[in-house]
């Protein structure tokens, strides 16, 4: 089976958390991202704004930009609602929406949402089965959008190939993108995320990288992923070691950052989404994205 269609205008997109931005302002950012030549905008869902509502707003504000959820938390909505929302967006914006799904993390699900986080692989498999059971006469004629899973471990990667259309690796080295491709084979989508630090001094960039990793370094899913990728316990300090930070985040010149992005394409990704870091997570990403677009020869 060949990959379902997605009309990416280019192989490089953007991963941006826009929760603190008013939506009209965020839509303006999306239009600028499209004008710079980026092919997509992927957005997270961390318990504040609804990623599917945001997706509809970004799709309606742009003309060709692909919008993806990176990821929509399966603990936020029931499977049938997720399925029908995806079909609706696919009907309104054909081949421009990607439904990325993930099990999230125990501290978020149990602490912030009051849910239960048990057997994530089985939970995801059951969720996908319930999505597939929604009858075709609901949003008839739409078909479903491309569906990706937030997959780090080998079993979740395998599930992303058997029960979905591919994977959305996050905070991984290009070598892990290559591992994901080896597991999935040639006919599944891989959209890898790559964080970059552009501008400032070397000390600034390292500080931004550590700040970015701070929240993730305490989560078992990412800690286990980094151990599988060749790091050790000494790298898993809060915010990550310097070694981990420099490996996971593209630092140095803008050309160095661009090389970190394209390394995932060389490793087998179909598309790479770049996340711009700075001195706080609410910065305007556009200045750095303009520099990076030039280095990547987008537009």
UniProtKB/TrEMBL annotation:
- Major localisation: secreted
Fetch the CDD domains from UniProt.
Tetrahydromethanopterin_reductase
Luciferase-like domain residues: 22-209
Pfam family of the protein (one): Bac_luciferase
Q: Does the keyword Oxidoreductase apply?
A: yes
**Is Nucleotidyltransferase found in the keyword set?**
no
Subcellular localization, as worded in the UniProt entry: Secreted
Q: Which UniProt keywords apply?
A: Amidation, Oxidoreductase, Secreted
Write the protein's name: TIGR03620 family F420-dependent LLM class oxidoreductase
Natural source organism: Mycolicibacterium arenosum
Q: What is the lineage of its organism?
A: Bacteria, Bacillati, Actinomycetota, Actinomycetes, Mycobacteriales
């Amino acid at each position: 089976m060949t990959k379902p269609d997605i009309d990416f205008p280019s192989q490089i997109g953007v991963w941006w958390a826009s929760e603190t931005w008013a939506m009209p302002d965020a839509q303006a950012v999306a239009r600028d991202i499209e004008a710079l030549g980026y092919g997509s905008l992927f957005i997270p869902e961390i318990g504040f704004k609804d990623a599917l509502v945001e997706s509809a707003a970004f799709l309606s504000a742009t003309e060709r930009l692909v919008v993806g959820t990176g990821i929509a938390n399966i603990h936020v909505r029931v499977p049938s609602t997720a399925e029908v929302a995806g079909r609706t967006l696919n009907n309104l914006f054909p081949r421009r929406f990607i439904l990325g799904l993930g099990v999230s993390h125990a501290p978020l699900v149990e602490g912030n949402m009051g849910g239960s986080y048990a057997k994530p692989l089985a939970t995801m498999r059951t969720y996908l089965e319930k999505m597939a059971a929604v009858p075709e006469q609901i949003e008839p004629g739409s078909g479903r959008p491309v569906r990706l899973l937030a997959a780090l471990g080998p079993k979740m990667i395998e599930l992303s190939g058997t029960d979905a259309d591919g994977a959305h690796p996050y905070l991984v080295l290009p070598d892990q993108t290559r591992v994901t491709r080896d597991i999935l084979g040639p006919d599944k989508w891989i959209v890898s995320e790559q964080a970059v630090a552009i501008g400032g001094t070397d000390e600034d960039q390292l500080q931004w990288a550590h700040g970015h990793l701070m929240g993730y370094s305490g989560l078992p899913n990412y800690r286990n992923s980094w151990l599988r990728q060749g790091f050790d316990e000494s790298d898993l300090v809060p915010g990550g070691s310097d070694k981990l930070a420099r490996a996971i985040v593209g630092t140095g010149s803008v050309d160095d950052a661009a090389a970190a992005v394209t390394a995932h394409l060389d490793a087998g990704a179909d598309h790479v989404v770049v996340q711009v870091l700075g001195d706080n997570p609410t910065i305007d990403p556009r200045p750095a994205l303009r520099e990076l677009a030039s280095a990547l020869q987008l537009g």
